[in-house]
Amino acid sequence: MKARHFPFFLLLGGLPVWSSAWAEQKCDAHAYPLSIHAEQFKDNGDGTLTDNQTKLTWMRCSLGQVWSGTTCVGKPSTHTWESAKAEACKLNEQGGYAGHSDWRVPQIPELAMIVERQCSNPRTNIALFPATPASYFWTATVPADPGNAYVLSFGAEGARYKGREEALNVRLVSGGKSK
Prior knowledge:
Structural class: mainly beta
């Protein structure tokens, strides 16, 4: 097992970098095959990564964080399902981000593509998606019950649905088609 340690509070350019108190990401190459290959992504140099297979472009940081050029700075903000979608619309109406003006909340299969099965706390490649909280993120996928939406955890919880009024993290995607 390979453990990665991150201090609770760092200053980069005078801004705090969020992470949980001595969060420890553990990755076990023997338990599962690697699910996120770094070479699968093109670093666009602007806080985004493009998946060469799906052609989706991902924000490297969660909403509320800022890309410093090397990591995500600040604490991720939480949003209700409706406010997460509204934040994406607002960003697009204000000219977008990193040359894209079609940001949206991803569908659950899309968000699942950036889950790293080898790792926990968080379950993603932190070299690609640094300072990702090991918590639930909204998806645009909705179950039959209109008061809920599917969420995906980068912690141990996996996927489920939650009430749309809950305040959860968000990572936006660009490209593809939202259903």
